[in-house]
Amino acid sequence: MAIEKWRPTRGLTPWNPFIELNEMEQRFDEMFSRPFLPSVWQRLPVEQMTWAPAIDVFEREGKFVVKAEVPGMKEDDIHVSVEGDVLTIKGEKKTESDVKEDDYYRSERSYGSFFRSIALPSNVDANKIEANYDNGVLEVSIPKKPEIKPKKIAIKKKEKASK
User: Fold this and answer.
1) What fold does the segment set 48-97+106-143 form as a domain?
2) pTM for the complete prediction?
3) Are the beta carbons of 65 and 139 closer than 8 angstroms?
C-alpha cells in the first residue's frame, strides 16, 4: 500500500475520469515495463508464436498491387490463390534448427504458419493475376478488367403516319 501526501483543496473538486484513466495507464506501464517471468516470454514454443506479414495494397497503372513482407522465406514456402473475390497469401516460415540449443536472452523473430486474405473488388481479372518475389518482398499484381464504356444510343424523332 502506497502512502500519498495529503493535498489540501479548496472545497470540492469536480470528478474528472480522465485523471483516473491517466493514473491507471501509468500503473499499467510501470507493471509491464519490467520483465515478468522472462523465461516464459522469451522461450515460447514455435507453435504458440504467430505472425503475419505486413502488407500494402495500392492501385497503380490500371491494376491493384499487394506487397507483402516475407523476409527469410523461399518462393516454395509461399502460396498465393484466388477463390471467388478473395486473394489469399499463405505460407510457413520455418525455424532455424541449428540454433535450438543456444541459450537465448531475447528472441524477436517470428516463425510459423501465416495467411492473409484480401477482399478483391468486382472489377478485377482473376485469370491474369501475377506474383513476383524478390529480396523478401512478395508483389502480387491484379489487373483490372477493361472498362466497359457506356454506348450512347441516338434518339430518333418518330415520324407521324400520313392520313
Assistant:
1) Immunoglobulin-like (2.60.40)
2) 0.56
3) yes
Residue with cell 515460447: 44
Would you give per-residue pLDDT tens digits along the chain (163 residues)?
A: 677 777 666 566 677 888 888 888 888 777 766 555 444 444 445 444 467 888 999 998 889 999 999 888 888 889 999 998 899 999 988 776 555 556 666 666 777 788 889 998 888 888 899 999 999 999 999 998 887 667 888 888 888 766 6
User: How far is Cα 123 from Cα 144, in angstroms, rounded to an integer?
Assistant: 6
d(CA 155, CA 72): 63
DSSP string, 58-90: EEETTEEEEEEE-TT--GGGEEEEEETTEEEEE
